[in-house]
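User: Thanks for the earlier help. One more: HTH tetR-type domain-containing protein. Can you show the sequence and predicted structure together?

Assistant: Of course, both are below.
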Amino acid sequence: MVKRTPEQAEETRRKILAAARHLFETKGYRDTSIAAIVDEAGTTKGALFYHFSNKEALFREVWTELQLEMDAETRAAAAAAISSTDPYAAFLAGTRVYFKWASTEAYQRIVLTDGRAVMGLERWQEDDDRLGRNNVANGLRYLAKQGHISEARIVPMSVMLLNALNGAGFSLSRKDPGVTADNLFEAFEELLRGLR
């Protein structure tokens, strides 16, 4: 047996993740087989199971990867939008990025739909909260420093706003009539600017 270098092993892992992400996005978790993933990745089942204990563990890694990519883009947009004249600009720039991601097939299927089914609602909420609520709380902390909200309301408001954003994402994924990323953003901006 040929011993693989750490770099080769990492490249194999990346190929498996990319193949799984593509198939989970286009076919869904349930209709994606391990055989299809390794075929698309150009590797073996043994290699897949070397890196991931099972299909659910692989899915969770893809789910987390997608969330972290969205999170990084959200943070970058917020940092770029900090304004001396509009204390809400950074928070809203991050929110617009979230709505952009929540409008994509990949995010809708992997994070919002299959994520809850595969991970279970309680685990999904825990992981989503761990990844997302800190960003919301940071935006609220900034608003509190500017005197727009009370420090005491940061935690409860972060819970409520994160769930409002998730609810909007679910609405986009269901393609609810009359709901668009743009009008959800406008409604969220009105809500955020109305906080006192």
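User: Great, one quick takeaway?

Assistant: The mean pLDDT is 94.
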